[in-house]
Input
Amino acid sequence: MFEFPQFSDIQRRAIYLALALALTVGAIFFSLAHGNAAATPTPTPTISALPTYSLPPLPPALVVVDVAGKVKHPGIYRLPQGSRAVDAIKAAGGQLKGVALTDINLAEVLTDGQQIIVGAPALSTASKSKKSGASKGKITSGTININTATVAQFEQLPGIGAVMAARIFAYRTAHGAFASIDDLTKVSGMGKSKFANLKNFVRI
Output
């Protein structure tokens, strides 16, 4: 019958120590192997960026104006919205040599369909009209746009002289475009009878 060998106390302690060391080393290797497996990062799927598109800029809004009179190139011009009378005159090549622009509000903001007349001929003064005994230079048909008319054009209206024409022009410059022809009565010196004589010859 097989008998286990007898070990001394020192031999048993050595065997126990060897077993404990083997278990410790095995535990260390197991921990390292498990840690490496856990530390391996899982690849993250990448999402490619979507392409970006920029919309083309919208074309600027335009106004169509008629530049007539003593300019280098009279005609119809299309200008960006917000342009002023001086821009329209520049687009037409500027005024002819010797032509003054004092009767035009160069800072006026243009409106679609507006007409600008440069160098309108000066009409007879009130004194000359009295001397001739006739309403020389006054219109007898058609209408004048009171929001675009020059001082000289206002003088063409029946009963309107140089002083009143200047008042109407100054009022429009200070207060902006007339909302209706009845607004002419707000101009200093424009009485009911004077307005009644000219109301059929004006428009807005």
Observations:
- The two ends are 136 Å apart (CA to CA).
